[in-house]
Write a structure and sequence with these properties.
Helices cover 23% and strands 23% of the residues. The chain has 189 residues and is an alpha/beta fold.
């Protein structure tokens, strides 16, 4: 099993490509069901990513249903690829969503939410290790965003696959997860 980011990124992108639509839905639902056991439901502001379907990311629709059923404030983001900074917006019935040039569904408009307000963040990833380090697509959007959140903000990775033992090339600027939820189990770091 590879242990550096570049090889792990490639390995998990390939594993993801092999998932059928059915696998994707079943695993996404299992992840949402496993989230219910976490001690996170007393918060108000939850940040959720909208999946890039072409990359076979976790379908967060089930999580959105969970959150709206619990009357939570849902926050989604827009990415600026020049600055690599994300801006955050409240998801409401009036929010228009449009895919950007990278097929990321993003809000067109909305009420801005500062990162410091967000209490729980569901984090997309390709792989993670037993220490709570994660590998994303390598653009650093989430590390920048999470660094701007309050230290007590709960960071929850969502992964179709179980952890690797270690990631060798972790940087100091990489923000660790508090939990990672897979279809099989919940990891606490």
């Amino acid at each position: 099993m590879p242990t550096n980011k570049k090889e792990l990124r490639l390995h998990y992108k390939n594993l993801r490509k092999q998932l059928s639509e059915n696998d994707l839905e079943e695993k996404s639902l299992a992840i949402a069901n496993n989230l219910i056991s976490l001690p996170i439901w007393d918060k108000t502001y939850y940040h959720v990513f909208l999946p890039i379907e072409e990359q076979k990311e976790v379908n967060t629709e089930y999580i959105l249903h969970l959150l709206s059923g619990k009357d939570k404030e849902i926050v989604i983001s827009k990415s600026d690829f020049e600055t690599r900074i994300m801006s955050h917006f409240l998801l409401t019935d009036n929010t228009k969503i449009k895919k950007n040039e990278y097929n990321i569904p993003e809000p067109v408009n909305g009420l801005s939410v500062p990162a410091e307000t967000i209490e729980v963040v569901f984090v997309p990833l390709l792989a993670f290790d037993v220490l709570g380090n994660r590998i994303g697509y390598g653009k650093g959007f989430y590390d920048k965003f999470l660094a701007g959140c309050k230290p007590e903000t709960i960071k929850i990775g969502l992964s179709f696959f179980e952890s690797v033992n270690q990631i060798d090339d972790v940087f100091e600027s990489d923000v660790k997860l508090d939990y990672c939820v897979t279809p099989e189990k919940v990891y606490r770091f």
